[in-house]
Amino acid sequence: MTPRRRLHPIAIIAGVGKELKSMVVPLLVIMVAGSRNDFSWRDLIVPLVAVAYTMVMGILSWIRFTYEWNEDNLLVEEGVFVRKRRSIPLERIHGISVTEGIWQRMAGVVQVHIEAAGDALGEAEVTLRAISREEARRLQRCVEQAKNKAENAAHPEPLANRPHPALFTLSMKEVWVASLTSGGALGVVAALCAFLSQFSDFIPYEALVRDIQSTWNGHGRWYIGLFILSILLAAYGVAVVQNMIRYASFVVRKQEDTIVIARGWLERKAVSVPVARVQGVVIHENWLRRFFGYASVSIIHAGGRLDGGGAGDVVLCPLVEKRRVASIIQACLPEYDLDAHFHPLPKRAQRRYMLRPLVWLVIPTILVAYMERPWGMAALFVLPLGAWIGTRRFRIAGWALSSRQLALRSGWFRQTTTYLLKRHVQSLEASATWWQRRKRLATISASVMPIGTRARVVDVDEEDAASIYRWLQGEKGDQT
């Protein structure tokens, strides 16, 4: 049993820094609101008190946080005012994420997120903010040994001594290409808008809108267009840099029954995902990557945010040639069959796919064409483009079924193909609107853990939808 110990003192700085980072915007708002255009030292009282309280609580939290583990359990005690003690069986730990942030790297330590059964969705059961690398490796070995002991399948040699060749790596060139083609600019713009919205009481947005309207009416449209384009290009550049930092030194290894994904430059991270916790495989292809024969692969993890993305989403391959995807999945998850034959949608569903984009485009396009005539008439070309996109979505959508696997494919700008094993499907819904029933069509939607993770295909033949539904109920015939 390891002796009871505290985290490295750098955990104080990391924890306080994280809290202060989330307090910057509220404190700035309080200072600006309190000054009323007449700033004085009194306006600093509330922010200084908040910063001092955060620092004191950070130190007390570090003092009161202790941890230890033995062959069977991880024991954690924490809490400043209310003491909380937790005992987590090592065999019930489902995922371990090891991160090296800037503060941790300065001190030569790592941060460990541990996810166990029964934790809240999206939150790690335990976070060891600063422990040594060797201690993190010992904890990982103890977790693996506890799992093997529970399964009565002890390893003949220590896990750390076994060679684990890389199944997938990204070169710097591939990291660059992945960052260029991953998008993310709209996310940066949305984050900027959310930040600026915090100052809506102090920034004269109405006056700015009036200035923009007068500039637009004064034939300054090109300047406004160039300004918007420059913002999007800057956001795109920020997104590219973020992705390059995130996916640098990307490598995937298979250690016994665990997939280990390591990545990162400024913040190094290693994520351990037990194969038994993988609920599905998702292949994403945006239009640009699809043109060059590339895709990205994610796995659905039955748990929280191990990799900084959405709950249950772990990136397995940020960028990979499509011809290599099947071999990588076969090495990591041999139960999945990516060579399944997809069934297309019935021909009578094509018109619905063509009309679906037009529902949102007709009224705005007509208004633009009328208000900005004669040049606005060019906007009418958007309508046949929307119908063409609907046709492409129709041709891509499909489904595949085997004795133990369901695959669903949809989208066009971002084509998504999801592979789910039968035993992992939590629910399957076959629904139909009044318009779908007239065409003998239905929508298939399959859900897995975590809650809210689902894949669906719209306008499947109703007989095919019924056969998929029977497949889940165990009544499938000779469908392959």
TrEMBL record:
Pfam family, one: bPH_2
Domain YdbS-like PH: 62-141, 249-320, 395-472
Keyword Transmembrane carried by entry: yes
Keyword Transcription regulation in record: no
Keywords of the record: Membrane, Transmembrane, Transmembrane helix
Transmembrane segments: 12-32, 44-63, 175-200, 220-241, 353-371, 377-394
Source superkingdom: Bacteria
Protein name: PH domain-containing protein
